[in-house]
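Problem statement: downstream parser choked on a complex file, so we are re-checking the raw output for the nicotinamide-adenine-dinucleotide run. The parser issue turned out to be on our end (a line-ending mismatch), but while we're here, posting the original submission so the record is complete.
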Amino acid sequence: MATRNKSILMLPGDGIGREVMGEVRRIAGWLEKGRGVAFDISEGLVGGASIDEHNTPLTDETMAEAMEVDAVLLGAVGGPKWDDLDFALKPERGLLRLRKEMDLFANLRPAIVFDALAEASTLKTELVSGLDIMIIRELTGGVYFGEPRGIETLPDGSRRGVNTQVYTTPEIQRVARVAFDLARQREGRVCSVEKANVMESGVLWRQEVQKVYDEEYADLELTHMYADNCAMQLVRNPKQFDVIVTDNLFGDMLSDEAAMLTGSLGMLPSASLGATDATGRRRALYEPVHGSAPDIAGSGLANPLACLMSFSMMLRYSFDLADDAELIERAVTNVLDGGLRTADIMQEGKAKVSTGVMGDALLRELDKLAA
Ligand code: NAD
């Protein structure tokens, strides 16, 4: 049976999004030539680039294509040029529409520290060196979406603000399964995080994660932790974790906290996963955590590694190409060990290089590793 090509929609977006995506494209080309991986890559507009061309941050056609392909890789959206537009027309709406219509309920934020960059962390080098943890944040439920919500004026004239933390069992179970499935490809350890000591939604979260574990994943390891303790443990001894799974609110904070253990925004990849369809394909959007960095756009200063590592997550999680993902990660490690740095991760005694020169070095390194 012929193997179907792996279809990817690349949406470079705005600012440095285009520059970093350009480097990823070169690496994808290398994989096609050097490793015989067959990609069908199409490119589309999102954010300000789409507003300029089509007067909307995401056209229906591009949205439809995102639903069709195996995976979407996004650069970044936004910039001062579009800051004064109405909220509904802003570049970010394109990204939000993708996330919503693809029903991306699980947000994966790895916190990986390359040894060469361990000194850039605010924590002691020995605490973070070799760190590799994965935080999975539930992305479509919880207190950011729960009803009732709003601000009301009470009879005595004072006002009351209300948000509702709410989770159903299917919402908890599906994100728990993503966490266990990922853990199976890693060290097999999941830590589920909530506040079951003070919140009913936390009690339910803990019970449901435990149930999914008991019934389907008992060969792995599951622990439970309160969110406040997790925040402390992440700075006390982050290497104790493998996979952390938590709700939307706690995940928002804990993933940013973990990101800061690693140093630069230019190094942080992410993925958002949705439900699996009848053919077993899971909707997926991969993107660097950083924005469009208008302050450095067009000057060759952008670090392409966050976008490249997002692509490598795509290889691993959408295409089951762990060997190719590892190859890319090894190339990144070696290039950093060799002393090359883009401006954002520059350290004394290292060689400062542009976006394109970093891409050249990665390609040379891949050639060497594959030889
Ligand atoms: P930003 O992430 O774009 O930049 C923050 C700082 O980090 C800047 O000084 C920038 O130069 C630097 N930086 C970021 N990525 C870098 C990289 N790869 N290499 C080197 N340096 C890098 O955040 P911001 O300045 O707050 O926002 C700029 C624009 O991006 C805004 O329009 C914002 O709305 C948008 N934004 C988009 C996304 C997204 O597309 N997912 C995320 C955040 C912000």
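For whoever reads this later: The chain has two domains: 1-109+268-371, 132-261.
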